[in-house]
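Input protein
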Amino acid sequence: MAGIDSNTALMLHGNGEDGSTSIIDSSLSPKTVSVFDNAQIDEDESKFGGSSILFDGNGDYLTVPYNSKFNILDSLTSSKTVDFWVKHASPSGFESYLTYSVNENNYWYLLHRQGGYGFLFYARLNGNAIITPVTYCCEITDTLWHHVSICKVGASIGLYVDGNQVIILTLTATQSISGTLAIGKGLAADRYLNGHLDEIRIQGSNYFNAAPNVGLTDTISVPTEEYVALPAHGFSQGIIII
């Protein structure tokens, strides 16, 4: 399905040979992905494409250097989408998915906390919280694949799990920082992900046409296949794409 265009800041399919430590950014402006410890391509598990990225929960993570498009909270009026598939090996404690940070006072992150908590999306600027409320929701207790998405529409931010809105948040101030994106690693040393990630994407648009609301009634269409980039001009099965 389409999903890679000029608004795509990062696109990690997690495709490749089993055990490979070459993680490719398939956005239209590819960025360097650095691999740490034992993070690697794994053909034993995948949502799409025959493989995914494996993290063992003990020091495995990826980093992507600063890119202005990772500042998903830089406006009270813009739309942004972050989404991926996750399969936990065994949900336990704090497990981080994405952390964009300069230091412990300037960051945004998305993590999961086991033990009756669930997902948390949070951000600080100069030590001050810029997302309210601070709330957890919807704990994963199984080892199945789940689609997770953050959909920012103006100052409203919705967290969606398997297509269903489960949290509504409000952005109270803008954040534009020159940070590093970490995948599978949090700000604290004990918050590594133990599991697999697939189809990790950061998108500078409201890709799912989300409409997050306080009633938590919004839904989005869960992807059914890998994202692809369509040609800007040309022919595809007899259809002119313009």
Summary: Residues 233-242 have pLDDT under 50 and may be disordered. The domain at 2-222 is CATH 2.60.120.200 (Jelly Rolls).
